[in-house]
Amino acid sequence: MTTNAELKNRRLAAAPRGVGVMCDFHAAQADNALITDVEGKQYIDFAAGIAVLNTGHRHPRIVKAVQEQLTHFTHTAYQIVPYESAIALAERINALAPIDGPAKTAFFTTGVEAVENAVKIARYATGRSAVIAFQGAFHGRTLMGLTLTGKVNPYKAGFGTMMSDVYHVPFPTNGVSVDDSLDAITTLFKTDVDPRRVAAIILEPVQGEGGFNPVPTALFEGLRQICDANGILLIADEVQTGFARTGKLFAMEHHTVKVDLITMAKSLGGGMPISGVVGRAEVMDAPNPGGLGGTYAANPLAVAAAHAVIDVIAEEKLCDRAVQLGERLQARLKTIQSKDAGIAEVRGLGSMVAVEFRNADTKAPDADRVNAIVKAALANGLLLLTCGLYGNVIRFLYPLTIEDALFDKALDIIEGAIKG
Ligand code: PMP
Question: Which of 315, 337, 368 is the last residue of a domain?
C-alpha cells in the first residue's frame, strides 16, 4: 500500500512549495460528502474542493452525463467546431441568471479566467481601462486576478508590479460602514482616478476568502447609483457564491439590484473545470470575434456535467437545502457561542456560513485558535477550511447533498473541536 508519508515525500520532491498543500493525506476515493485516503481513513468533506462540490463528489447524475458525453466526443475546440450542448448551456444560464434584459454567456475553464474575461469585456464595452475592487476580496491568481485581489500575503507578495489602473476601496466589515465604502469611491474619484476612465467595479456578493462577509443590500444600491451616474459597469464575482451555495442559484438573487456581468465557476461544473461570464447581451457582444475564448473553453465533458448540476440543483431542491443546513449549522454555532467569549461572530447567507474567533479580552483576531480547531477536527475525521484577512475565520463548505446523519456527525465534531 502506498502510504501518505511516502506520497508526501514524493510530492515535496516533485512539486514546488508555491502550490501550498493543506492536508498530509492523499485522496484515493470520494463519495458525496466523504473522502477516503490512500490508507483507508475517511474524512467528512466540509471543503468540497473549495466550494466546487455543492452537488457532492461523483453525483450519479453528473457521472452518467460525463460518461455519456465520452461516447460522443471529448474535444473539438468550441471556437473551431461548436456543439449544441454548449449552446444549450448558455441558453439555460441566460434564462436563469439575474441579469436585466437579454443576456449572453461565454464559457471558459477556471474561475480566474472568468474574472479576467469579465474585465476584458467591461474594458471593451466602455472603452475605459480602470477597475475598482474591494480590500479583502479574492479574485484569483493570474496577474489581473491577483491585482484585483485585496490581500497581499500570500497572493501578491514577491510577484512584482501589479497591473496598472486597479484601485481598492474598503469593504464594509470590521467597523467600516456602507457609507464609508461608498465615500471611499467618491474620494477616489477626486484623488486618484477620473470616473470617466473607470470601466468596472467588481465585488463578490459574499466575500469568500476574505471571511464570508455578505455584501449589504445598501452597498449594491449605492454602487449601482455610482455606476449609472458615471457609465461604469458593475461585476458580481459569483465564482464561490454561485450554484445554490447561498440558498439561491446566484447570490445576486438576494438583491433587487442587477449587475451588468456575473462570473461563475466552481460548483457550475460539479468537479469538472468550467467557468463562465453571463451579462447584458450588448455588453457581452462588445469584443470582436476572436477576442474571447480559450482552447478548452466550454469543454464538452464539463458542459455535460454543468447541465447535470443544474438539473440536480432543481430536482433535489438544493437551494432550499442550503437554507435548511445553513440554519442548522448557525443555530448550533450560536449555542456554542453563548458559552464561548472567543467566538466573535457567527454569520452567513444560506450555506455560506462562517464563525469568527477573536481574543475575548483584546478582541485581536485569533488565528492560533482557529488553526487548533481545524487540526482537532481533522484528527476526528472532518475537513474544515479557514478564511479571513487574518485567518481567524472557519468557513463551512459541505456538499449540499450531504446525508443528514453525516451532517449531524460533523456538527458534533465541530462542537468537540471548538470546546477543545
Ligand atoms: N473568484 C472568487 C470569488 C473565488 O473564490 C475564486 C477561487 N477561490 C476565484 C475567483 C478563482 O477561481 P479559480 O481558482 O478557479 O481560478
Answer: 315
Answering whether pTM is above 0.85, one says yes
- Which ligand 1 atom sits nearest the alpha carbon of residue 50? 8
Q: Is the dihedral of CA 224, 228, 232, 234 positive or negative?
A: positive
Asked if residue 182 has its Cβ within 6 Å of ligand 1, the reply is no
Domain around 411: 4-58+317-419
**Residue nearest (by alpha carbon) to ligand 1 atom 5:** 240
SS3 231: coil
Cα 142 to averaged position of ligand 1 atoms, centre (Å): 10
Distance from the CA of 209 to the center of ligand 1, in angstroms? 9
CB of 150 within 6 A of ligand 1: the answer is no
pLDDT one digit per residue (tens) for the chain, 420 residues: 899 999 999 999 999 999 999 999 999 999 999 999 999 999 999 999 999 999 999 999 999 999 999 999 999 999 999 999 999 999 999 999 999 999 999 999 999 999 999 999 999 999 999 999 999 999 999 999 999 999 999 999 999 999 999 999 999 999 999 999 999 999 999 999 999 999 999 999 999 999 999 999 999 999 999 999 999 999 999 999 999 999 999 999 999 999 999 999 999 999 999 999 999 999 999 999 999 999 999 999 999 999 999 999 999 999 999 999 999 999 999 999 999 999 999 999 999 999 999 999 999 999 999 999 999 999 999 999 999 999 999 999 999 999 999 999 999 999 999 998
**Which atom of ligand 1 approaches the CA of 238 most closely?**
3
3-state secondary structure of 88: helix
What span, in angstroms and rounded, lies between the C-alpha atoms of 32 and 57? 4
With a 6 Å cutoff on the Cβ, whether 112 touches ligand 1 is yes
Count of the separate structural domains present in the chain: 2
Ligand 1: residue of 240, 264, 267 to mutate (most ligand atoms within 8 A of CB) is 240
Ligand 1 lined by 237 (C-beta under 6 Å): yes
Amino acid at residue number 389: L
Do 259 and 182 lie in one domain? The reply is: yes
Of 268, 300, 315, the one marking the end of a domain is 315
Same domain assignment for residues 27 and 97:
no
- Looking at 204-340, which runs of residues are DSSP E strands? 206-207, 213-214, 233-237, 261-264, 275-280
Q: Which of 375, 352, 22 is nearest to 211 (CA)?
A: 352
**Whole-angstrom distance, CA of residue 361 vs CA of residue 235:** 39
